[in-house]
Amino acid sequence: MSEELQKNPSSQEEEIDLLELALKVWGERKFILKACGYAVLIGLVIVFSIPREYTAEAMIAPELSDNKGTCLLYTSPSPRDRQKSRMPSSA
């Protein structure tokens, strides 16, 4: 069985050498930093070239003339409000 695994390299597990990978990334650090720098510059050019546009909307309710202290947020009574409370009164 072990001879079959050695003959067929696709069935064997491949190991990733993290040190080798880190050395390759470190070797290409100048390219990576240049690419990131160019991306930042392009992003800044785009951000500062787009005109600023602000939009605000407001809906104002008219003030009631009778000033009875009514709330503008009215909710209809619930059927539960008509039932007697099941909680014993503390008084």
Brief summary:
This protein has 91 residues and is an all-alpha fold. It is built from four helices and no strands.
Structure report:
The chain has helices at residues 2-7, 18-27, 29-49, 79-82. The mean pLDDT is 77. The chain is elongated. With 91 residues, it is mostly helical. It is 45% helix and 0% strand.
Shape field: elongated
Average pLDDT, rounded to a whole number, is: 77
Unreliable stretches: none
Rg over alpha carbons: 36 Å
Measured as a percent range, the helix fraction is 40-55%
Our measurement of the CA-to-CA distance between the termini, rounded to an integer number of angstroms, reads 87 Å
| Strand percent estimate | under 5%
Structural class: mainly alpha
Q: What is the tally of helical segments?
A: 4
> Using DSSP, what is the number of strands?
0
Largest sheet data = none
Order of helices and strands: HHHH
Show the helix and strand layout.
Elements: H1 2-7, H2 18-27, H3 29-49, H4 79-82
Fill in the keyword field for this structure.
mainly alpha; 91 residues; 0% strand; elongated
